[in-house]
Request: fold
Amino acid sequence: MFRTTASYFPRIGLKREYKQNLESYWEKKISKEEFVSNMQEIQKHRLDVYSKSGLDYIVCNDFTYYDFMLDLSFMFGCIPERFSHIQDELDLYFAMARGDSKAQAQEMTKWFDTNYHYIVPEFDGHFELKNNTVLKNWLEDKKLGYDTTPVIIGPFTFISLGKINDNNKWLKPSQTKEFRSLLLNVAKQYNALLIQLQENGVRRICFDEPAFVLDYDKSFLKDIFDAYEIVKKNIFLDITLNSYYESLSYFNEIIENINFDTLGLDFTFRENVENVIKFGLPKDKKLQIGLIGTRHPFKDNLNEAKQLVELCLKKLSLSSDQMILSTAGPLMHLPVSLELENFDPKISNKLLFAKEKLQHLNLLKNILNGRSDYDFSDEQLEKDENYEETLLTIKNLNPKRAHPFKLRYIEQVKSLNLPKFPTTTIGSFPQTKELRQKRSQFISGKISESEYNQYINDQIKYIVKLQEDLGIDVLVHGEFERSDMVEFFAQKLEGFLCTKHGWVISYGSRAIRPPIIYGKVKRTKPMTIKEIVYAQSLTKKPLKGMLTGPITILNWSFTRPNVPKEVIAYEIALALKEEVMDLQKANIKIIQIDEPAFREGLPLKESKKKDYLEFASKIFRFVVEDVDKLTQIHTHMCYSEFDEIVNYIYEMDADCISIEASRSKGDIISSFEKFKYDHAIGLGVWDIHSPRVPSVEEMLEIAERSFMYIDKNLFWINPDCGLKTRKYEEVIPSLKNMIEAAKILRKKYGEKIEVVL
Reply:
């Protein structure tokens, strides 16, 4: 009989209960006891969803107060010395993620090729099982009547995604000679963890090893095998080894050398299917196959899933008892449920959010177990369009700016009257409670459009004056009319569906509502002109037109799995190209086209990266190729590893790029050590994802480190990211410090930009 499992059901809650609880605790509106009790209620609800969805193997330990990688760091004693002043455990946990007045938060970066951000572990070689939170979570669920299977990020993924200080430089462990010792040492703590689970009656566990799909060096295989020997010593638990997001690397070596009971694979990647058929499985092993997609909200084809199951049964000589059906990956990348949405039935009938995906998985199980007379004709997809002509058009694109960068930049600096080390912000300013209430009142019809527009104009007027008073050189309009940098454009373009409650966590309590691209994307009218032009009319200083780039809109939206992503990106780019030209016609001299998801879409396999990067940089150039040489083009990227993509960022040919640098203390600048980046660059000197106010000295330290590789005449001063989530009491003093840092640098290195052709 076929059985099912799934993990990481969204913790945000249908009405964002998780976010509300976290932020209430951080703002000291509730006690620690209330906070913990509320979190337990949210977890109870998640378990109830699992149970009512018919899952046979319900997991635990897939719920976290902030981040599951942070949970491992905390559990294994990987706590940086700078937090030693904090005694309370919960305060310490959150300080590691968010920082406090005395210590900077740990680095945060993207989780594989998703929009989830994790807290990067900092290793010093010492690991100690401080408290077994996995066991604690299992025991709590047991009290509620659930026999759960703990799911744990495996040792290879944990170590691979951390960093270690090597001669005052933070490096990935795989870049140092310490990798093996780190992996084997932490394996001992995993073993101690499993022994405690075993002694308390746990029967099954699942190690998630998404890093097993990466193209790591084959020499690490021995380290992995030795680590798992240590992990498994004196352990008799039933162990699932699970991977997702891509096909398993070194398939045959892994299945032959790691002692597991069940192998979990993401079957949305055909190579996994081919490898299972080619190499088979060791005798008496089970196969957990991920058939229900978790990276898109469209209905999965159950007929195709059934055929894959039947193929494995036949080729591998497996029984149904040896096969576990599952989602292809973590459910946390999907919104909670369609329950509160009010879509056109013609569209909603094609959609599934996380709760409905579980129901779809249960339906597949019932079909295979002969308990459903499901009519497969009901899932006939609409006839796919022929995209060959569009793909050929895209292939033949060769966009480029008419003038070389330095010629453009010299004339732009004169035209804009920019000083050395120009200061700016990334785009958004705080979205206050009052602003959110006004937006809600407008949407619900409680205030008129003219009243709402007047309120937005008042906010724009305030923020322009604030920036002028602070002495910022290049201003922004604050983006008060925008709920989200992607959703705003989705609401203006044809072909998008926006949700009311489709929240997905990006990091901590920060959640976004990814729009759903269900049709052809078209621009029918200007999207940003009104607010930008009004803001520019209030000041003589240059003010940036703010757009979200085609790759970010693509990657931060849900797309149809049967449409080539290049086609969708091209449609978005056409719309943005029209908007760029309209901004230029309106005499907007600086246009910023944000691409924070540029690297996020980077395929995990080396063989697929080049095509993606070439396309991503080309489609950006396509958007801006027709602008005048005096129109300065900016872009922004955040919390990414730039080493392998810096040359493609250069090929975007933006006049200025702003990137994160504060959490990594400027270490990210090493990406530019080998590649001479001779365009303007703004390294973020202020971590806006933390509530702390950085000092002038901290900002200067990052800037001075950057001058080793970046020309001072091309260096901008700015925060890491937009200020939407921060409060004015944090923003204003931080901006004052940023301006003071720029003044100090000008006094030391001169006031005038000197760019030599």
About this structure: The chain has two domains: 3-372, 405-749. The longest helix spans residues 449-470. The first strand starts at residue 3 and ends at 5.
